[in-house]
Hints:
Blueprint: H1 2-19, E1 25-36, E2 46-62, E3 67-72, E4 77-82, H2 93-106, E5 114-120, H3 130-146, H4 152-167, H5 174-181, E6 186-191, E7 197-201, E8 206-212, H6 220-241, H7 251-256, H8 263-287, H9 291-309, H10 314-324, E9 329-334, E10 342-348, H11 352-367, E11 372-376, E12 383-385
Parallel strand pairs: 3-5
Antiparallel strand pairs: 1-2, 1-12, 2-5, 2-6, 3-4, 6-7, 8-10, 8-11, 9-10
This protein binds alpha-D-galactopyranose.
Amino acid sequence: MVETIDLQQFIRDVFQSKFGSPPALVAKAPGRVNLIGEHTDYNDGFVLPMAIDRAIWMAVSPRDDRRVVLHSLDFDRVDEFSLDDIQKGDLGPVEYVKGIAHFLKETGLDLVGFDGMMKGNVPVGAGLSSSAALEMVTARVFTALSGAPWDPVAMAKLAQRAENQWVGMNCGIMDQLISAAGQEGRALLIDCRSLELKQTPLPTGTVVVVMDTNTRRGEHGHMDSAYNERREQCEEAARIIGVPALRDVSMAQLEASKDRLSDVTYRRARHVVSEDERTLKAYDVMLADDPAALGRLMNEAHTSISDDFEVSSKALDAMAEIAQAQPGCFGARMTGGGFAGCAVALIDEKVVEAFTADVARLYEEQIGIEPQLYVCRASAGAGIVE
Ligand code: GLA
């Protein structure tokens, strides 16, 4: 919390000293952690994430020459482009900004250029959606500068389009939508077909711990292709079964179609179909304030995504398993797209200190990398900060 306020002030101060006047506005958009419902969003299914108290802040003042000049403090670079000539460049943070600008322009919005400065504390490439946070903070800034209303769902859809078509990552809607629409103290069950959102508090007396394996997804493009391949396998399964998306398949239907699917396609589908079931149950048990039941579902979800969907890793498996074995841990699993990055645990608030110390030590002993563990609070989605 202290860190949050500090970063906000920090970015104002740096802006002021660079440009000689305070920013016209500061916006922020959070990263997210997904409690359950992994690789279900692009199958029109269900996810249950929460926005976290880590975000990207952008301080801006309008320019009158339709140029965007963006100082990125984390990447130590300055990028510049004209709103009248937005061209794709090498992958870097500004590509997300350009993608949003391009698709906002397509909606007919009259964009205003700006001098901007950004900084965040969502670890990059860790599976906590730093890209979605960047997309949403950009969208929030552009809409505010143009005086347009803020529609979180419409903006999340636009940002997803930007990521699919500008950056080339065929992600679903989860990350953008939770970064746009997150709620303080709440996780959101998202129906990724209707985009209906239902909120629930976390179980009483529990906290969510994000456990960063400190392994990263390596070359961006490489892991994106593994992600895109999973998506294609799911779409193939739906096509063979004869439904619009795996969301429409029950476990009984999947079993009846088993002979028509290759072993890999069947297992991919089994993960998605069972994960949708678990996610709906998870929402119910959260409403019933039953942390033990939620934890069991998280543990099952980890096994499913690791064995059937095969997007976990040695480090993620170790982290999830070590966490699961600790006293006071209700459940743990890898979170996000997979291959590297973070796992998430639901624990009894009384064991936070012992849990984080023991998991960190055991993980480092086993994997040889020092991890980072932090308690995350459910936070509000993208907004202008005072
Ligand atoms: C990434 C994508 C999301 C979602 C998750 C897996 O975070 O951006 O759309 O598919 O992976 O659940």
